Automatic annotation (TrEMBL):
Lipid bilayer topology: Multi-pass membrane protein
PROSITE patterns listed in its UniProt record: ABC_TM1
Pfam families: BPD_transp_1
Keywords for this protein: Cell membrane, Membrane, Plasmid, Transmembrane, Transmembrane helix, Transport
Family to which this protein belongs: Belongs to the binding-protein-dependent transport system permease family.
Full protein name: Binding-protein-dependent transport systems inner membrane component
Methyltransferase recorded as keyword: no
Source organism (scientific name): Caballeronia insecticola
Gene3D superfamilies xrefs: MetI-like
GO cellular component labels: plasma membrane
Subcellular location(s) of the protein: Cell membrane
Residue intervals passing through the bilayer: 26-50, 90-111, 123-146, 173-198, 219-238, 282-301
Domain ABC transmembrane type-1 stretches: 86-300
Record bears the keyword Ribosomal protein: no
Amino acid sequence: MASTATHARRRAKSARYFGIVPRSPAFWFLIPAIAALAIIGVYPLLLALYNSFHQYKLADLASGTPWVGVDNYIATLTDPSFWGALGRTALFLCVTLPIEIALGLFAALLLHRTDLPWMRAAARVSLVIPMATTYAVVGLIGRLIFNRQFGVANYLTGLIGIPPQDWLADPTLAFVSVMIMDIWQWTPFCALILLAGLSMVPKEAEEAARLETPKWSMILWHLQRPYLLPGLTAILILRSADMLKMFDAVFTMTRGGPGAATEFISVYIQRVGFRLFDQGMASAQAIILLILTIVLSRLYIRFVYREAA
């Protein structure tokens, strides 16, 4: 019995030494999270990658899913509709994201300069409300705001003499309407992130800078900018990824219309996969979109975050 116990202790010791059994019990608490990540994140990605190399049509499952190699990728890259949806998404990102950052920076500077703690706390709570609203609800709110008969948008424009507009039936106005709702929802996110960066600036240095120059632009550029760049990098990465996969709010608000005016890339992929029932083509498009998101994130880190470092 003693030899058996000694042998068991030696096996346990060797297992810990080679890392087979983790020394910290925290590892066992990570197992549910790892399992959830594998089921929710890794498995769908591998399945999409597998489907992208096969002909997988839901309307013709009797024919099986034969291997087609890179044919789905070639068809995607030569599809004008795919590039049109990607171009609309890029335009939406390039116009909406700078507006959100500019408005968020303006709000963050106002809150940073206020001397009333209760006002700052109330503003932070109110800024969380749009972010906490789900995308589908934002789309429904947008349909109500831009309704031609009883929408608030036509009421406000009517106060300055502009006749009622059919916002969601006009291609340009529908695109602008989606932009407005996204700006309303995510400008507070930019403001809170940038406000956190401003709070990292040493107060002594900021007070000395205000004594040196009254120009807030010089203080912002020379003193506060290095503290804002890490948060700005996070905003660029997260918001760009969100805009590239933006679906719920657009689909609820406009269904991608009128025509294809608001058919962003995620809406187009959904149409190919669940209306044309071509899962192989949709999977290839999703993989290309993932690669594009990774490349864009790496560019942000290289050119924005490296400057902060």
